[in-house]
Amino acid sequence: MTEANPSPDIRLSDAARRILREALAEGGGSWLRLRIDEHFAHELLFEPGAEGDTVVDANGICLLLDPASAQRAHGLSIDYREDLQGTGLYFANPNRPAQTLPQALRRDCPATLIPHGEPLLLTQGERVLVTQALGGSFTVQIAGGRLARIAASEADALGREAAPTSAPPPASGAFDIQQVLETLKTVYDPEIPVNVVDLGLIYQCQAQPLEGGGQRVSIKMSMTAPGCGMGDVLQEEARAKVEALPGVAEVEVELVWDPPWDQSRMSEAARLQLGLL
């Protein structure tokens, strides 16, 4: 790790500093990794340092940033809030490009209403605000403050290129059950910036070889609330992404509700991201 010169100026509110100190104490770590992707989605993770990292002292909290994240972080403010809008960490980043402001759709675009799961058609010229861009799909705020999900295949309607929607395959090109889990980590709850694995929504993931060759992958997953309308959408996204992996011949993704999901199933990284540590 190296201390970049100059390092980005990152400021924490007193509330955010308190939450992050508690997280570090509970996790037994000395630093947190701050990752800011090309869509300006922010993540705080327990990860080891790497060559080229920038080390930033943010009001007494040690943050590690990879070179790309460091370039996007100058002037960043991090706050922790508990209000009617929700509980968690909030990132105010002055470096967000104009495309993260409300924008007009370039063409008619099919979408899914959140959280009901109802299909709808957004029309060319309609103004939307991208609130989340993870795993290839987009969550946008539309008229009336409602949220909708736009699939990765419709990225051009937002003037963007479709991002890779799955983890890179293993170098050997052979089937790897760990790669299935890594790919499931590219499936995100459209309202929460955490993947379904770290949220604890994957109850079971198994593979069985088929007589004709290839693997049959069986996945049992749940939702954060019974009857969530986005269940079918995330179920299909998980199936399609896993089906594209090397050596996978069949995929079954089953939605289950027993036992009911609760926050105890979330990973430490997810609880940190949502300010629950």
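The record above closes out task 2.4. Task 2.5 opens with a second protein, given below.
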Amino acid sequence: MNLKTLIVVLGTISSLSAAAAGSAQAADTLRVRGTVASFEPSLLTVKTRQGDTSAIKLNAGWTISGVANASVKDIKQGDFLGIASVSKADGGSGALEVVVFPAAMKGTGEGDRPWDLQPNSRMTNGTVADVTDIDGRAVTLTYDNGQTKKISIPDTTPVVTFAPATPTDLKPGATVVVTAEREADGTLSSGRVVVGNNGVAPPM
């Protein structure tokens, strides 16, 4: 997979939440997190974190991406990030995970929206306007024509970027995050999969 193809694939993956938010079927969009139970060319079965299994039909032309570790120390002004966060008891927001987007994907899924990584969590995709290092690192993201949000990033927060992957990475036990659509008959389908490879599990 060349760089141009990877960028197209990752753009599709990362814009999924924004597209779902504007869709009449947004309520039928869900993220399936877990490990691969089995994989066939058009069917992925996932053992979820709740212990049950979900069979997901893979649409024609489905895409796959992996993840690789990134460093919070390398985050700088102008970078485009996706951060899942929750409100802190003492005010502000604390990061649960951080995705550093490649420069060519800047603007993908920009905005702030509810997320389901933890109860009451939110996903914010925006450009880094400011970075501070007081009591750990914190970033201020700008999005949607000037809105801002400051998020602290504890040292233990997973920080990743996207990386190439192939269907051969979908081995039993591999960690995956799949955004799926629930059809009227209850079946699940998806056109994109994020898989843990390079020894890194997708934290989103």
